[in-house]
Amino acid sequence: MTQTHPSSNSPRLEILQLGNPRLRDTARAIASSSDPALQALIDQLLVTMHASNGVGIAAPQVGQPICLVIVASRPNPRYPDAPEMEPLPMLNPRLLSHSDETLKGWEGCLSVPGIRGLVPRYREIEVEYGDRHGNLRRQVFTDFVARIVQHEVDHLKGLVFVDRVETTRDLITEQEYQKLLS
Ligand code: K1U
Ligand code: ZN
C-alpha cells in the first residue's frame, strides 16, 4: 500500500487539555537526537498534528516534557498568505533575537479546543535549534510562521496562549471566530 507519509504507521497520541497540570511543567533539554525513542516520538507528533489539523505541536502537549516542537505552516482563511512548509521538527529551540515590532493575531491551540485568542507576538525572530538529526541550525522566521514558533516554544515553558492575551476580552469562542472569517 502507498503511504502518504513515512510516519503514518505511528499511533496518534492523546493531547493534554487546559487544566491538566502537566501542560504547565517546564520541559527539559534533549541530550541526544539519535535515541530511537525520540525519533519515534517525532513521528507520533507528526501523525497527531496532521490528524488534529494543527499547524504545530509541542511534545509537552502529549505528556512528554522535553524540548521538542514541530512547526508546519500552511495557508488558511485567517492567514491566506502563510507559506506552505514541510513540517519542521525543532529540538531545543532557543530564541536568539527578535524584532521590536509585535503584531496581534488570532491563535488556536490543540490543548484549548473551542477558544481563539488575539495574541501579541514578535513579527520576526531568529531561532537556534537542532533538526531531527541533531544538526544545529539558525533560522529567521517572520509573520505567521514566527507566531507558530513562539506559540510552540511557550508550550516548553508551560505557557498557553490564553496567558498571553492583553485582556480576557480578546478571547472568543470558535463559533464567534468563524463569524469573523465570513
Ligand atoms: O500548539 C498547538 O496547539 C497547535 C496550534 C498552533 C498555532 C495555531 C495558530 C496560531 C499559532 C499557533 C494549532 O495548530 S491550533 C489549530 C488551529 O486552530 C489553526 C490551524 C490553522 C491555522 C490557524 C489555526
Ligand atoms: Zn498550543
From TrEMBL:
One GO BP: translation
Highest taxon in the source lineage: Bacteria
Residues passing through the membrane, by range: none
Cited InterPro entries: Peptide_deformylase, Peptide_deformylase_sf
EC code(s) of this entry: 3.5.1.88
Keywords: Hydrolase, Iron, Metal-binding, Protein biosynthesis
Function text: Removes the formyl group from the N-terminal Met of newly synthesized proteins. Requires at least a dipeptide for an efficient rate of reaction. N-terminal L-methionine is a prerequisite for activity but the enzyme has broad specificity at other positions.
HAMAP family xref list: Pep_deformylase (MF_00163)
Name of this protein: Peptide deformylase
Source species of the chain: Thermoleptolyngbya oregonensis NK1-22
High-level lineage: Bacteria, Bacillati, Cyanobacteriota, Cyanophyceae, Oculatellales
